[in-house]
Write a structure and sequence with these properties.
6-stranded antiparallel beta sheet; about 190 residues; 12 strands
Length: about 190
């Protein structure tokens, strides 16, 4: 008789567990029925989020222009080079840019993208090879190896340039341009 009771209690316990699980499962399914874009779950744009962050940080963006209170009081721009803004990069040979933001650069066949010390490149499109005037090459941080002069660069790999004079160029025989994401200083020759 003891065995019959043990089996009966086990069956009732398992059945009750399944029944309770089914009830709570239906409750959990109903919790995720809020549609994106409704007042309960609004969809916002990146610009709106950026604007709200700027307001929260105290640097709210003023989109309306105001007239100066004294129109005769003109100010001259500062002559200190440290306070001037960095010029926008161009894809013309001989252009030198030093920035700490990501910049998209197009390298045409025959051109070289030379990095300043500490720059980082990611080749997004095209076939690139390393250019280096020294024996040492360029560090491929994605796979953790050193790429020597003339070796191919894999796309979407982070390259680090510890010294100036090293860079990348379009693989010889290739007629397509490179699209490269650049962080730091560079020069297009």
């Amino acid at each position: 008789m003891k065995r019959y009771w043990k089996i009966s209690i086990a069956a009732i316990t398992i059945g009750a567990g399944i029944w309770i699980g089914a009830i709570y499962s239906n409750t959990a399914i109903g919790a995720g029925t809020i549609q994106p874009g409704t007042p309960d779950d609004p969809v916002v744009t990146k610009s709106y989020v950026d604007q709200q962050i700027q307001k929260a940080l105290g640097g709210g963006i003023n989109t309306t222009r105001t007239k100066p209170s004294n129109p005769n009081n003109t100010t001259t721009p500062p002559k200190d080079n440290a306070t001037t803004t960095t010029p926008k990069p161009t894809d013309k040979p001989g252009t030198t840019v030093v920035e700490n933001t990501l910049t998209i650069v197009t390298v045409k066949p025959g051109e070289k993208l030379i990095a300043k010390a500490g720059a980082e490149f990611i080749v997004r499109n095209g076939k690139a090879v390393v250019y280096s005037d020294a024996e040492n090459g360029v560090a491929d941080l994605t796979v953790g190896k050193d790429i020597k002069n003339g070796e191919a660069v894999e796309n979407n790999h982070l390259l680090s340039f510890p010294r100036e004079g090293r860079g990348i160029m379009v693989q010889e025989g290739n007629t397509y341009s490179l699209t490269v994401m650049v962080r730091g200083g560079y020069m297009l020759q």
